[in-house]
Write a structure and sequence with these properties.
- Helix content is 37%, strand content 13%.
- The strands form two sheets. A seven-stranded mixed beta sheet has the order 1-7-6-5-4-2-3, with helices on both faces. A five-stranded mixed beta sheet has the order 8-9-12-11-10, covered by helices on one side.
- The chain starts with 11 loop residues before the first helix and ends in a 7-residue tail after the last helix.
- The protein has two domains: 245 residues, Type I PLP-dependent aspartate aminotransferase-like (Major domain) (Aspartate Aminotransferase, domain 2, 3-Layer(aba) Sandwich), CATH 3.40.640.10; 133 residues, Aspartate Aminotransferase, domain 1, CATH 3.90.1150.10.
- Helix 2 packs parallel to helix 9.
- Strand 5, helix 7 and strand 6 form a beta-alpha-beta unit.
- It contains 14 helices and twelve strands.
- It has 398 residues and is an alpha/beta fold.
- Bound molecules: pyridoxal-5'-phosphate.
- It catalyses: L,L-cystathionine + H2O = L-homocysteine + pyruvate + NH4(+); an S-substituted L-cysteine + H2O = a thiol + pyruvate + NH4(+).
- It is an enzyme of class 4 (lyase).
- Pathway: Amino-acid biosynthesis; L-methionine biosynthesis via de novo pathway; L-homocysteine from L-cystathionine: step 1/1.
- One of its GO terms (molecular function) is pyridoxal phosphate binding.
């Protein structure tokens, strides 16, 4: 059972807004958690003791406030906020020793792929990239002695494939009791999917995406189920100095309050757009569509389909023209922002994966990814329809 479950008294949409008054003791009852923009804290005795905080690398009240809040939202025993999503993974990877092994997906976030490659080349850690949407492929690589981490993303990005987190976690814990199941839950956000409840040991997020929601800060969030794992993670964060600064902690806390309302709107827009594209006869990858091969599995893991989808046009040149003809849709990497974005993963976010590996992993070069924002859905669809027409596609209007 997750340690702090009993603390969740309201629906998640309410918990997101409600900041527990005990998280930070503030002398003036500030309605907004203050930004403690300080590196050091004065102590009351000559032996350096006396205060709850001494140095902001080790701890800062603004950071604590967002960590306590995130632990509640993620139903984690403990949560940490660090400088970026990649830092979150870097901190977690430091739990792996030379000679141990990592099993990870083959349709991963580009930066994740890059860091895992580095670790395998410099730290003597073997990384197996397998198709995690087939639990058997994961099981084949499990080694009770060597496996340390099993790293999952679901849905994957940009192909939007689903990994059965619940069954994989159960099998990993059965076969490798000392291995940790880690899920990058950025695509779903804690609002739509709780992977600690599905059996993961650690869940992390790029806070740069949905949690903050406005592309105005970078952050990473890590939540874990067990105190002992939390202690190890804290050790690395303090030792390496990767904790999030006070101002960004404050921005993250501010952003996360609107996660529920943003996600509801972004998701309903995404559904309208997925249906529009499917009606054009295009191959659309979105777990909210009944045509998604793992529609039922996704529904069993999460409470929604999210707001990232991708589609294929069959022609790289055509895809480029569509992307460049869109106006409302900004050409940008990343997702989770209030405004809508369009990109070609193979040329942008996933360009760091060598072309031959992209091919091996069936990543279509013509794939277009849409990250849907909170605009009015009719404007988004009209803009997309116009871009398709400009690029040379005959558009059927519904
Ligand atoms: C963006 C992203 C990351 C990396 O997060 P940063 O905050 O950019 O370092 C990791 N995983 C996924 C799924 C992401 O989308």
């Amino acid at each position: 059972m997750v340690g702090s479950t009993e603390k969740t008294r309201y629906h998640l949409a309410t918990e997101l807004v409600y900041i527990d008054g005990d998280a930070v003791k503030d002398n003036y009852n500030a309605a907004s958690v203050p930004i403690y923009q300080t590196a050091t804290f004065k102590q009351s005795s000559a032996d350096g003791s006396g205060g709850e905080y001494d140095y902001s690398r080790s701890g800062n009240p603004t950071r604590t406030a967002v960590e306590v809040h995130m632990a509640k939202i993620m139903k984690a025993e403990r949560a940490f906020v660090v400088s970026t999503g990649m830092t979150a993974l870097d901190v977690i990877l430091r739990l792996v020793k030379t000679g141990q092994e990592v099993i990870a997906g083959d349709d991963l976030y580009g930066g994740t792929n890059r860091l895992l490659t580095y670790v395998s080349q410099y730290n003597g850690v073997k990384v197996h990239n397998v198709d995690t949407t087939d639990p058997k492929r994961v099981e084949e690589k499990l080694d009770p002695v060597k496996t340390r981490l099993v790293l999952l993303e679901s849905p994957t990005n940009p192909l939007i494939k689903i990994a059965d987190i619940r069954s994989i976690a159960a099998r990993v814990h059965e076969i490798c009791p000392s291995a940790l199941v880690v899920v990058d839950n950025t695509m779903m956000s804690p609002y739509l999917q709780n992977t600690l409840e599905l059996g993961a040991d650690i869940e992390y997020h790029s806070g740069t995406k949905y949690l903050s929601g406005h592309h105005d800060l970078m952050a990473g969030v890590i939540g874990c189920r067990e105190q002992s794992v939390g202690d190890q993670l804290y050790f690395v964060i303090n030792a390496s100095g990767s904790g999030l600064g006070p101002f960004d902690s404050w921005l993250l806390l501010r952003g996360v309050k609107t996660l529920g309302i943003r996600m509801e709107k972004q998701q309903s827009n995404a559904m309208e757009i997925a249906e529009f594209l499917e009606a054009q006869g295009l191959k659309v990858h979105y777990p909210g569509l009944a045509s998604h091969p793992q529609y039922e599995l996704h529904r069993s893991l999460s409470s929604g389909a999210g707001a990232v989808l991708s589609f294929e046009t069959g022609d790289v040149g055509l895809s480029e023209r569509i992307v460049e003809s869109a106006k409302l849709w900004g050409i940008s990497v990343s997702f989770g922002c209030v405004n809508s974005l369009i990109s070609m993963p193979c040329k942008m976010s996933h360009a760091s994966i060598p072309a031959e590996i992209r091919k091996q992993r069936h990543l279509p070069e013509d794939l277009i990814r849409l990250c849907v924002g909170i605009e009015h859905h009719e404007d988004l669809i009209n803009d997309l329809a116009r871009a398709l027409e400009t690029a040379g596609v005959q558009v059927k209007r519904g």
